[in-house]
Design goal:
Elements (H helix, E strand, L loop, with lengths): L4 E6 L3 E6 L7 E4 L2 E3 L6 E3 L13 E3 L2 E2 L2 E2 L2 H16 L7 E6 L5 H14 L4 E6 H5 L4 H4 L15 E7 L4 E7 L2 E2 L5 E3 L3 H15 L7 H11 L6 H8 L10 E4 L10 E3 L12 E4 L2 H4 L2 H4 L11 H10 L6 H5 L2 E4 L8 H12 L8 E2 L7 H12 L2 H7 L1 E2 H7 L1 H7 L4
Parallel strand pairs: 1-9, 9-10, 11-18, 18-19
Antiparallel strand pairs: 1-2, 2-3, 4-5, 4-6, 7-8, 10-20, 11-12, 12-13, 12-14, 15-16, 15-17
Helix pairs in contact: 5-6, 10-12
């Protein structure tokens, strides 16, 4: 009988983890060790479910600037993950794990060492997230209901825009292989947006510099992409009665309320609603950094420009195919108006001869995990034996065998 396979999309903000099987869904686990200020307790990964007071949490993260550098923290999180979430003995299972694009060779060697020597997994396969996204049924994502594909065949061309916690990567693919010269990275992700919102809110109202968890929740509940920034800025200047953009976020007190919420317009304040955070132009100016990083002094292209740069770096023969197969994934794709804004800005930059077709999966956060799960579920045991590096191969040849087998980036 084939050993079970753990699929682990090891993101810098959250890990998506589950045991591969047809129709399975992943569990999202914070990739951090968090210390509560009130109870002085440490929460490792999945233990965050037990946390009740999210004020002034102190985060210890294994990732820095998108690269896994603190292996002491990551090892502790993985130990808890495999023990409490997957509940599998690593020796008797396989691991499919994601890594960042253009990961450093020294860090890749560390991945292999931890997986094979410390956790002693029977076999392992490492891939970048966008590569796994390709393995999903993209025709269905684009709304082609004729597609009844039950194989992991990949489209001839696709462009994956992965906007996550640390970075935004634009990765073009040809016949399932990433085109290295076409890859573009923008140093803007969810972490930078949250930090920027912390600074703006702290300057304008309450000091929220230590409230990462709360401000992240504010960002997820309040922010959106504007279709016309200048028009919306004019609306923000209007009196309260005519301002259709302003929202009031009720901050949690962790006694009566555990989570913040948006207060409906016209609702009278209650005693519990002690602290109100007014969100006006911050709602769309914070996400705007993804479209124009120069707003905060970063000399980089925004997402629409970076897509054009990425396509231009590829063979002109496939430009049309790339523009017609753009897939948006990653946590920032959940911000309302994201797809529409990229479509609008891209249309102004791309020659009219090219059709622009952009799709966003139902859950952009777990899309890479779903691709990995599909790979395992639809492949034969013989195919998986070829794809994965077995532990005995690693012990004989070291990381060289992993470099030969893994990834196009």
């Amino acid at each position: 009988m084939a050993p079970p396979t753990v699929v682990l999309d090891n993101g810098a903000h959250s890990m998506k983890v589950g045991i591969a099987s047809d129709g399975a869904s992943p569990r999202l686990v914070p990739n951090a060790i968090v210390r509560g200020k009130a109870d002085k307790r440490h929460y490792v990964g999945d233990q965050m479910d037990n946390c009740t007071d999210f004020s002034s949490l102190y985060y210890r993260l294994p990732f820095e600037k998108g690269l896994l550098v603190n292996w002491g923290i990551e090892r502790t999180i993985w130990e808890s993950l495999f023990k409490n979430v997957t509940k599998l003995e690593p020796k008797d299972s396989r691991l499919l794990i994601t890594e960042p694009c253009f990961n450093l060779p020294a860090i890749q060697d560390n991945y292999d060492q931890i997986v094979f020597e410390e956790f002693e997994f029977g076999a392992c396969f490492r891939a970048i997230g966008p590569e796994l996204c390709l393995l999903n049924d993209l025709a269905r994502v684009f709304g082609d209901n004729q597609s009844k594909s039950a194989s992991t065949s990949v489209p001839d061309c696709a462009l994956i825009v992965d906007s996550g916690y640390s970075f935004t990567h634009i990765v073009p693919f040809l016949k399932g292989k990433a085109i290295p010269e076409g890859v573009r990275r923008i140093n803007v992700g969810g972490k930078l947006l949250t930090n920027q919102l912390k600074e703006v809110v702290s300057f304008r109202s309450y000091d929220m510099m230590e409230e990462t968890y709360i401000i992240n929740d504010v960002k997820e509940k309040c922010c959106f992409f504007s279709k016309d920034v200048y028009q919306d800025l004019d609306i923000c200047k209007k009196p309260l009665a005519k301002n259709t953009i302003i929202q009031e976020y009720v901050l949690p007190d962790f006694i009566n309320t555990k989570a913040g919420h948006i207060r409906a317009k016209g609702t009278a304040a209650t005693v519990a609603d002690q602290q109100i955070l007014a969100m006006n132009n911050e709602r769309f100016m914070i996400p705007e950094i993804l479209m124009h990083p120069s707003d905060i002094g970063l000399e980089q292209a925004g997402i629409p420009e970076a897509i054009v740069q990425s396509v231009d770096a590829c063979d002109p023969a496939i430009h049309g195919l790339l523009y017609a197969n753009i897939v948006l994934v990653g946590g920032n794709a959940n911000i309302p108006g994201y797809l529409e804004r990229i479509q609008q800005d891209l249309r102004q930059l791309v020659p009219i001869d090219y059709e622009i077709r952009i799709a966003k999966p139902e859950n952009p956060v777990t899309f890479a995990w779903e691709g990995g799960n599909r790979l395992i579920s639809l492949s034969t045991e013989k195919e998986l034996q070829k794809t994965f590096v077995q532990r005995k191969e690693y012990l004989e040849y070291g990381s060289d065998v992993c470099r030969r087998k893994f990834g196009s980036l």
